[in-house]
Write a structure and sequence with these properties.
The chain is α+β, with helices and mostly antiparallel strands and 209 residues long. It has 6 helices and 6 strands, in the order βββαααβααββα. The longest helix is centred in the middle third of the chain and has 17 residues, at 71-87. It starts with 12 loop residues before the first strand and ends in a 25-residue tail after the last helix.
Length: 209
């Protein structure tokens, strides 16, 4: 039987780019246990690329979500029209706004978030990339939509993130939707519910030109 004591791990070993390296000699000792990143679900508000969003959706069983229909949107159109007739406050959803919202409805896979390549979104909305922001502004200016791109440093270059007012479009439970609605209308600067917010600290109020 050998009396040799067990080897003590060297304090000179560090992890670099997925390998265990001796920091004195530079020798690669072995692959690190951390060389393959663990599969995890990023928070929805932290998704800053198409890849992040796809990784998030891998953990969502969308078959268990409520039916994704246009009824809530059309109910909101009727409610806004009724409010205008009763009070004179013009909160109507115009026909162009409704048509664009119905197009976005078909692109929402989960909650009220859309993340796509700029070129793909433009094609799906029947426009060109150079005209995309102008097309979306009809909703942005009415607080029906928030837009995030690489211009504000929140999304990968060439991609775009849309967050739709959850009163109009939402794919999830009614209870979750209510939390998103409260967050959407929360005044700027107040405490916000990070657990339900699909965006970061800037919130739904950050608008890209």
């Amino acid at each position: 039987m050998s009396n040799t004591p067990p080897a003590t791990p060297s304090k000179n070993l560090i992890t670099v780019d997925g390998f265990v390296v001796d920091k004195l000699t530079g020798e690669i000792v072995k692959p690190s246990v951390f060389s393959t990143p663990a599969d995890y679900q990023p928070n929805l508000r932290d998704c800053r690329s198409v890849d992040d969003f796809e990784r998030h959706l891998k953990f969502v069983d969308r078959r268990k979500l409520p039916a994704h229909t246009l009824h809530p949107l059309r109910d909101e159109v009727d409610r806004a029209l009724g409010e205008w007739r009763r009070t004179g406050v013009d909160c109507r959803i115009t026909v162009p706004q409704q048509r664009l919202l119905e197009q976005l409805h078909g692109l929402v896979l989960y909650r009220n978030v859309i993340i796509l390549l700029l070129a793909d979104l433009a094609a799906k909305l029947g426009t060109v990339e150079s005209n995309l922001m102008k097309k979306l502004r009809v909703l942005v200016d009415a607080n029906m939509l928030s837009v995030y791109t690489s211009r504000d440093g929140s999304i990968r270059k060439g991609e775009i993130k849309l967050v739709v007012n959850p009163r109009l479009i939402f794919r999830g439970s009614d209870n979750t939707r209510e939390g998103y609605i409260r967050e959407w209308y929360r005044p700027v600067g107040s405490l916000h519910l990070e657990a339900v917010s699909p965006v970061g600290v800037a919130g739904n109020f950050a608008i890209v030109a």
